[in-house]
């Protein structure tokens, strides 16, 4: 795999920069990275390898300790454990196992990484990731604070000043009063939408709620899951049905930040959801009134009440910012 990259050496700075970019994700699967970008995959495995002290033979326990330390720091964005990681590393030659199979040492890194590896340390990798992740967390907290300010009915001027650099856009008051409970739950759905964004997916989040309690969550993940049905609503419905051991969720409500599409509206009807609450309208694929209204069709549905526009500005604004950021990113697509 590495042979094709041999000609393009990476610098230590570029390594750290790419690792920091990957670090802003959560729950990254090595198998997915491998399919999407073989260079990222090798860079992550090489980063793990640098946590094994050079020129030292480690027993299995020692090797596991090093890999756990990687996963706690520079590998914090990965969804794996030290056993799976050790298997990848050994299978691909990043780490060598002795003939008896009991001891480990660093193997040979792909040629495009070798020169940078010689000047990089585990500490430098961990620091780059820590910095990137705390910047991401601060950014998310700031966005959340901005929403809270915007949706608060009468926020004192002092709060707005405290928001500092955050752009607080003045919005006209919503024409319909939504209950505080609906708004609180929609904020939780927005948190789920953020999880999608962190993985590079279109940020839509959903919750299933029963008796006022959140019993399942979901966020949009069709790219990561290679699954065209992995919309936030379907993810949340699946989790709720599995939890309850019942595909009928007749006593449940579904909250989602974006108007459901026809597929999700169908799934919501099959699940017999009692009440659907959504945020922003979707003028391209919305099936709850924007393009078509599958809930207004009496031959299809007798179960679901629909509440529209809860925190619509926040829910829509998140999508707008996501697409703006993606367009302005280097090599960004529309
Ligand atoms: Zn959908």
Would you kindly provide a written description of the structure presented here, covering whatever features stand out?
It is built from 13 helices and eight strands. With 334 residues, it is of the alpha/beta class. A five-stranded mixed beta sheet has the order 5-4-6-7-8. A three-stranded antiparallel beta sheet has the order 1-3-2. Helix 1 packs parallel to helix 7 (122-151) and helix 4 packs across helix 5 (82-91). The model is unreliable at 155-174 (pLDDT under 50). The chain binds zinc ion. Zinc ion is lined by residues 231, 233, 260-261, 263-264. Residues 231, 233, 260-261, 263-264 line the site of zinc ion.
In short:
This protein is of the alpha/beta class.
Topology record:
Blueprint: H1 12-23, H2 30-36, H3 38-49, E1 58-59, H4 60-72, H5 82-91, E2 95-97, E3 103-106, H6 111-119, H7 122-151, H8 157-162, H9 180-198, E4 205-210, E5 213-219, H10 222-225, H11 232-244, E6 252-258, H12 262-270, E7 275-280, E8 305-307, H13 312-328
Parallel strand pairs: 6-7, 7-8
Antiparallel strand pairs: 1-3, 2-3, 4-5, 4-6
Helix pairs in contact: 1-7, 2-3, 4-5
This protein binds zinc ion.
Secondary structure category: alpha/beta
Name the beta content range.
5-15%
Please state the average pLDDT score.
87
Strand count, sense and barrel status of the largest sheet are: 5 strands, mixed
The distinct ligands, each listed once, are: zinc ion
The portion of residues assigned to helices is 40-55%
CA radius of gyration = 24 Å
**Helix-strand pattern, N to C?**
HHHEHHEEHHHHEEHHEHEEH
End-to-end span in angstroms? 31 Å
* Shape descriptor: elongated
Report the strand count: 8
Low-confidence stretches: 155-174
Strand order of the largest sheet: 5-4-6-7-8
Helical segment count = 13
């Amino acid at each position: 795999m590495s042979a094709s990259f041999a000609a393009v050496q990476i610098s230590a700075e570029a390594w750290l920069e790419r690792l920091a970019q990957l670090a802003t994700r959560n729950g990254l699967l090595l198998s997915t990275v491998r399919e999407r970008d073989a260079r990222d995959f090798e860079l992550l495995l090489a980063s793990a390898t640098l946590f094994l002290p050079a020129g030292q033979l480690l027993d299995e326990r020692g090797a596991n300790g090093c890999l756990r330390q990687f996963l706690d720091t520079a590998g914090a964005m990965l969804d794996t454990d030290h056993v799976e990681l050790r298997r990848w590393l050994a299978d691909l030659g990043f780490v060598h196992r002795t003939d008896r199979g009991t001891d480990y040492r660093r193997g040979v890194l792909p040629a495009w990484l070798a020169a940078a590896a010689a000047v990089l340390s585990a500490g430098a990798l961990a620091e780059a990731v820590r910095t990137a992740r705390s910047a991401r967390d601060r950014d998310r907290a700031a966005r959340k604070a901005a929403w809270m300010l915007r949706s608060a009915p009468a926020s004192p001027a002092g709060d707005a000043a405290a928001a500092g650099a955050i752009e607080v856009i003045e919005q006209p008051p919503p024409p319909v009063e939504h209950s505080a409970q609906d708004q609180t739950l929609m904020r939780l759905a927005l948190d789920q939408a953020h999880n999608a964004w962190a993985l590079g997916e279109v940020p839509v989040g959903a919750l299933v709620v029963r008796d006022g309690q959140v019993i399942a969550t979901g966020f949009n993940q069709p790219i990561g899951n290679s699954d065209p049905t992995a919309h936030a609503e379907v993810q949340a419905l699946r989790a709720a049905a599995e939890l309850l051991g019942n595909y009928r969720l007749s006593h449940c409500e579904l909250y989602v930040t974006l108007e459901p599409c026809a597929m999700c509206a169908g799934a919501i009807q099959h699940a017999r959801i009692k009440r659907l609450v959504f945020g922003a309208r979707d003028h391209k694929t919305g099936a709850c009134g924007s393009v078509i209204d599958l809930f207004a069709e009496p031959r299809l549905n007798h179960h679901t009440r629909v509440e529209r526009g809860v925190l619509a500005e926040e829910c829509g604004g998140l999508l707008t910012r996501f697409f703006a950021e993606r367009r302005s990113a280097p090599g960004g697509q529309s």
